[in-house]
Specification:
heterodimer; A: 258 residues; mainly alpha; 4 helices; B: 182 residues
Amino acid sequence: MGFNIRKAVQVGALPIAAPAVVLNQKLAPMAGGVADKLLGKGNAVTGALDTASGYVDKITGQKSKEDTARDAAQAAAVAKEEMYKNLPQLQDRQGLGTLGDAGQFKSSTIAQSPWAALAQKQQGLSQGMAGDALARSNAVAAAQGRALGGMQRGNAAQGLESAGLANQGQIASSRLGLAAQGGQQRQQIAQQGAGRGLDVAQFNVGQQNQAAQANVGAQNQDINQQNAFNRIKFGEQMKFKGGQESGNALDKSKGGKK
Amino acid sequence: MAINYDDYKGKIGDMSPEQLAYIQANKTFTPDLASSSPWASMGADQQTADQAAALGGLPQIQQGALSQANNMTAMRGGLGGGAANRMARASVEGGALAGQNIRAQGAVDQLGAQMAGADVTTGADKVNAGISQGAQAYNTQNAIKNLGGMNANALANYGEKIKGFGAGQTANALAAAGGGKK
């Protein structure tokens, strides 16, 4: 039922230039605007017919003022849609986070030195060698003592015993001295190793701090840039809005026409 | 950018020239790092060579000492069979002991050389770590600059497009108004 004229009119073909009005001849004789009343459209009194672009008086073929105004509003809406279709859009700013790993400052650190472990090992070896050398020199001294006693042939068993005891005492004393010296050396090594370890640790912390500081700086810079971006974007939008409002104002004033 | 006006058949205000795509400045720098210092292993190598030389010369020294002792005892009438054997055995034992001493001292010296090498290596590691971190920071700064450039480019593009859009609308409005014709 009703008229299928709407299908024949291209909405986007604006401005509307005499759209082809196709009337359904079969329904037209339904005089008295019955069909129009059913549709809630049309003019039952004048018998005006509903078309896509408005009402056309059957007799005069002219649009009413209301129809003309409605057509104009529709055309303006379509024109506006058409106009904004090409409105440039600003994509969101890409923040530092979008770079992922590539946007992160990283620290390069170094491994702890094996110096202290090597030094302790060396000290152990040296002390062992010194112990061996001590034992050898005492053995040589004892042998020399025995040989000397043998040559003099006057050394009684008691004398040999005394010499042996003295030799043992000397060995014990020397070993104690050696152990004490070893302890001192190990302590020195520990101190020097700690110094080296501290040096490496300080270096690594310096590297890490440098990277962390750079990251904080980059993040702050990113925030500043985002703020600047927002300001510029707002400025552009305000410029656009200003132009839009001026246009609307001009439009409402009908371009100064009276 | 050159505009091909033949492409614009419609209203002049509908022209939408496009800025050329942003060229990414995303080259990265890979630093050359100093290889481990030759000084780090040079001391240990030198010690190994010295030790080998010392051990190699030991039999000759030992043999010389034995010969000298034999000569001295010969001048005093010579050694009996048993004493000669004992002296020869003592010489062999002395040689073994000397060899053992050389090896033990060698191990101590080797460790000393490794300790010195460890210090050199640590120094080199520090330099390399500084270079690596510097290069990484340089690349990161460039990546951030590139990102900033992309954003600035997009913003400038938007600003220019908005200007163009506004100019287009003005042009269309003027055209629709009939250019002042009555």
